[in-house]
Amino acid sequence: MVYSSIIFSAVAALAVVQNVNAHGYMYIPLAEFEGTATSSWIVQIEPQWSGDWDSCSSDDSDCLTSVYTTLKSSNGYSDIRTLLDSNTDLYGADCGYTNPDATAKDPPTTGDATFSRGMVHVGPCEIWLDDTMVLSNDNCLTAYGDGTVDTKSVFTPVDYSSCSTSGCMLRFYWLAFQGVDSKMVWQVYKDCVPLTGPASGDSSSTSKTSTTATSTSSTTGNEAATSTSGDTTTTSSSTSDPTTASSTTTETSTSESSVTTTTAPSATTGAPTTGGDSWTSTGSAMTTSSGDSWTSASQGKDNQGGKGWSGGFGGMGGGDAEVGNPP
Length: 327
What we know:
Radius of gyration: 44 Å
Number of helices: 5
Mean pLDDT: 70
Helix content: 10-25%
Number of domains: 2
Number of strands: 14
Structural class: alpha+beta
Strand order of the largest sheet: 2-8-7-4-5
Order of helices and strands: HEEHHHEEEHEEEEEEEEE
Distance between the termini: 27 Å
Shape: globular
Largest sheet: 5 strands, antiparallel
Keywords: Signal
Strand content: 15-25%
């Protein structure tokens, strides 16, 4: 009898250990527990939404997920946090057994989060950063696990960029469905992990640089207005750029050498221009026989008669370890 009692006690103790190890907690980033509490579910209750739960077996993922999603919609819920935080007497304390005042942890830079074990129960789970939901799935068993406890479930993707640089609270919720004595029950998990801030590289400031290009439209070089009176040509120079040209009175000569091909007397030979007003730019010699003409700098060409434009202007620059003391 004593021997039988010992065997029974050993089996019972093993069952308790397996039950504790078979649940889990947020492992990366690491949740810490208060006192002697464990990583087990915080409450186990009958389903709070009336439906055909018992028509599904515990391992019938499709059946349970279908019942859950249908009832979630008909009961007006878009997430499980709203439900599980609505009544702490029924659904368990805020943060469950975890310590929300633990030392803040750095979030992983891999854009994910890791559970302490593989999920083996069908049911929805969510991860929130303060009031921003960053991960949600109606069946986390198939989404993030392989059906065994040996392979840790990795929740991905998790975007930590919404976490304030001064820190935030990661909240993990899991509503697991399990068959107990031929009845389906709800098991509630809540973990809280304070974080130091966004993951490295997530927080970035974007600066916009506005570059204003100033375009200046000007005639090329300096403009020289030339009027003819008798045999003497008076040239008064004005500029539209920062370079100031000198004002000179010359005897039909230019300030720089130029190539002039013309049948009329050239300004470089001492002959005056004849007829009309002539405009030349500094650095060019231009001779017209009549009419008005325009030339660009550094190039000399004839324009005989009429008003014309020659040349161009200037351009522009343009592991499965438990935390706390398990029972």
